[in-house]
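Progress against Task 2.4 (sequence-to-structure conversion) is shown through the following example record, which the project officer requested during the mid-term review.
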Amino acid sequence: MEIFGASELAFNKSFFAKTYPKTLKIQDAHIQDFASSEVPQSSGSFNYPSTMQGFDGRFILWRTDGPNLYLDEYSTSTDLRDASLCINFSQSNVIPSVKAFVKAGMFVLVVPTQSSIHRIVVSIDQRDDVTLGGRSILAYFPRESELQYYWDVHNLKVSGTATQAAITVSDIGKTFISLVMADGPLILVSFPMNAVQGEPSDPPMETVLYENGGISRFFSNPVDSNEVSSVAISLVENDVLIFAVYQDNKLRVWSANTKQVVFSAPFSQFIDDPTLARANGVTVKTSVDTDDVIIVLKASMPRGLTNFYFLKLTGKVANPEFELLTSINFESKSVLDYLALGSPKQNELAVVWVIAHEAFDPDRMDSSYQPYSLWRCPIFTIGSYRWERVHSAVDDQSFNELKFAFPKSLNAIKHRIFNGECYSFDVVHRAIQIACRKDPVVPIVYNDWSALVTYVEEYVASGFFIQQYLEKDEDVSLNMFSYVSSTAQVAASERFYETLLRYCDEFQEAGLAPLGLWYSRSLDLVGVIQACRFTVYTRGDTQMMAIVGSVQNQEAGVSRAFAIADEYVDNQVGRIRNDFDVLSDITLELCEVIRLFAEHCPMDGVKMASAGTPTIATSFTSGYLSIVLRRRLMRRFKFATLIRNLIQLVNELGFQTEDGISERWNSVTKTHDGTIFQIADNYRKVWSALSYRLTRQDHKLSDDGLHRVTVGQAFFQLGKDLVTKFDVVAALGSNGSDDDEDASSTGSRFRLMSESESPFAILLREVVDGSIISLWPESTSLTLACFLARQGYADALMAYCLENSPFISELEKAFTFYIAVANAIHGDGKQAFAKFTNVIDGIKAHDNSLNIAISQMLNEPVDADAVTKHSTGDYLKIAMDLLRKYHHVDYALKMGKIIIDSGNCEGDAAFFALVYTDLFKLHLNNEEYTEAVQMVGNNPGKHEREMCLRELVSVMLRKKRYPALANLEFGELTELVAEILERNCQATYVSWDDPIINVAYSFYVKKYMYDLAARVYIEYAIRLSKESETRAVIEKRCHVLAAILGLMQCVPTVTYELKEAAPKEGESQLNRSDFVVVIRQHPNDAITGTLIDKQWLRIEHVKASLRKELINQYPVFAIPPTDTEELYKDALKYRMYDLAFTLCQKCKLDVSPLIEQITYEAIVVDHEEQEVRNEIDFRLGQMKHKPGMLKIMANKAKSVPLTSQPQWIISNKQFVIHGEEMLMPPHWKLVYSYLKYADSVNPSTVPFRAAARQCIKYHKALPDWLKTAYINRHAADLMFLYIEYDELSSALDVYDASLDNFEKGFKDQLLKTRTDLPYSMFDQVVAHARKRRPASDPIFRRFNEVRARTKEIVNLFESLAAATRLQEEHLRSQHVC
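Structure tokens generated for the chain above:
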């Protein structure tokens, strides 16, 4: 029956691109006349050899258009990248017969033009990116700059223009091209294989083929010898034969080896057909199999006939002969292309494919038109043949077909225009521009179908549309009070879309012009290459054809009956009353067809296998599967609709006639009428759901992100485990087995290219048959609804569920569940929650369809015989997951509360652990951290608790909720959180400025874990010391050490130890540090690492503080030293005396350099002040006799501070002692304070000596306080300094002061305190004076005076001492008595 017959199909992937991203320009030999020479467009295909691994299911289609050659590669196993290429040959047009082949690991493309032959060679050996990486071989064609390494050309030497060519390649890779010249001879050109690779080889050879050589050519008829109408070429044994048909109705065969004619004879010599002499033209093609060479001649006969003759080459190559195998007739005088393929069926010799020109039918009701028809002709072994017309792709998706699926014609028009399978994007884009007549123009982003739809919808709703498409009687003024009725609006919309559809048909017609046939042997695919797309031949619905063919010898009558039913669509009973006799004669046959159709509807429970292979998921295969499946669904729906029309028609006609309706008819129709209606409705539902076009918001599958796909294509691409396959032929039995009579006698002598059912074709057939069953709306699996729910296609899912309303009782709960899912995806959480809760009773009742739906959503295996019964908790859990997935947090929390309230955590701890985990994540995403912690605490799973706490810490850190994390109350989980924070701090991937460390410190402090807080910061400080030092790192370490010292006040007895970290088993290197700081539990334990106590911390803090201040003084990119001595020197250099003094105290350094430098600075200040004072005195002396304001101002200036304080005095005030020596200048007060602090910490003469030395060195009188303190500390040392600098008088002053102290001491304290006199130093003073001073120096007189005074004091001391001894002896004697 024609409705279920074979058809051409086109889909979105079969449309060629408007522009090609890669264009290769090649300069051709330019002849001005070539630009005006018309060359017909041509096309062809290339299939990779079956021996090439990794290239299964790949083929290349080529088209020519003037100087352009378009190449497109397709694959059924992977989505290829960069799979299109355009080659431009300047102004020389490409002639038919482009050839591609693979030899020796090289892909070779041979392109003949009107004046040259071009060859491009690309290596495909050892290219994993071609076979495995998903890149097309076209992506490796050279750029123009590298063309010379991959391309060679032979410019024809003969004059004239080439019109056609035939190309083949030998076993060694040598290319042979036979060219037909316009009004000229036949040319043979041979190319060696290695010419392109730069290796030395023979140049291309060009030979003119003449049948007669020498002088005889001048006496022969040039027409008979030169004009060739068609040529073919074939590799035979070790030679290449050229088959040329001349206009004198002769076939001549040339040998490429000898360049001579090996066969020349008129057609009548080997074809016994006298009518062949009247042929208007003959063309020749060859087809080669393993052993035989078959020549196919096509002869255009008078009276609109075309004959095909099949000749087998016999005999030797040097003396060939031809045997006529068979001939067939075709009733068309305009055959555009033909192809002969072998047949695997034993009763068939071959199958012939023909493209015939199709004239436009003026009586055609549909405006869609295809300017050709595709015919298929199986040739049987018994000598008969049968021409079968293939439904065109235009007819298969015409408006007349779509009207069955759409109640309103407007929806059918919209579907046809915007489905992306009927028209190319360019056609629809151009049609919209013409139909809308509105600026700005339509968006021009290629393949953006969503933009086109949006543009048209906005235009229809605009005022431009009302103004342009309302009829005169509907037109209204466009003022603000005008009203356009809805009826007028709808009528105008229908006129607009009908106009738009007509424009699309008109613009598409030129793009549907056929260029040639193409085929893929490995994939068992045949089709037509059109100007804008290519089509694929699809076999008919064998199951339905078997049902219709079950009525023996009445198939034609049944077909006529359904044609009558098709005309009954408009209920025109009177017009077809005369056909009632036809219906009444085949009533029983119609009953049988109706019964079989009703009983063979898809059913549940059929065993099928999963077919989710990578092949199905490719864009080419999924698109092809989608259109095949939807075509079959549409045809079956149409057939069911026609059955119902037929039943209604027969019933009406029967009641109006005397014969009435037979009992058999009544029984069958009444029994199956409801079933037929339900079947038809189900087919429509599935077709409508699979044809739903996904919008931009739903999905982006294509590379450009703009081309929308149908649900059917998305199902095969993304369905994975949901796609099933089923062998219908094996299930139904061999109803259509072929008669193999005479197969043995003829099959061996007629072997062409095999048209067998390839593995790809078997997979397609099984997947389509299986999908019809698995996608059946009444199936309890509800596969399509499950797929839409999984992928989140809310609009398509809701539309599919509403299409099935009202639901049958077995599926009501499952459909309600999917509606809830659709509501959740749409954003309607309230409705989703209500629907989910309404289905709970279905779980309690163990509803099979609902349990299957839950299993599918959980990706669990489904066994129809043993459906998994889910608990109420399982269902509520998946409902909560869906609500959470689509961001309905509040309703997901409600659902979680229902789960918790409905069960016992101890009964199923693992399940409730997951529930609490999900609730935790909901609260966490909602930033309800307190509630999240509560969920963690209630979680019965230990592992889940730790995992949740890790996530909580991670999220709060990522969101910078640091105070909130530190302030959270974790209760019993506090220690676990502390461990998590500590592990995070110790990870090496954590940068030094990561906030996790500060957060951990704050957390420990907030939780009164001071020892842990100090340990974290100690580790942090050590880590900072190992970082690449910058200003920020140094400052950070200083602050950290300061914080540690402050925190140690809270734990004064705690000490720490720095150890090398031992690696733990299974621990990643990235998650551990190379050191660890531990708390010393017992102070007496042995120290194996480095002890860290307050003293260590103070030293590190001082050094860090000093380095922080130094880096501010350093030039750019300079880093302070880490050595203590170097730091001390730099501190003195930059006058950081407080820090330097602190460093001395903490590190036990010599304070002398500090005292010396600061004393020197004080002396300098005094000197500067004295200079200023002298200047003022001088000025005052000059103004002594000048009264007036100048004198007053000068006296006033004398009373104010003479100089401002230097910065080092202002910056160093940490150790200044206030309250003592208030009249002391600030700079000397600073020296005084350092000396006093140093003496209090470590009593020593060294600091005093350093200060005194500087004063003596620079002839500065020692301040009284310094001199007094030094004398009290060590007068002899001070005298030595004076002697060193030859200050003998000052040394004597020190000695006098010592005598005073000595005398006062033993007088006041009555000899209880012993005071030593620096008498030895006095002798040194005298000795030094005798060496350095003359005898007349007054110093000697003073020596005598001091010596006399010394004796006097010593004598007094001795007298007092003697008296004291006598008194003590007297007291002892009295005590004894």
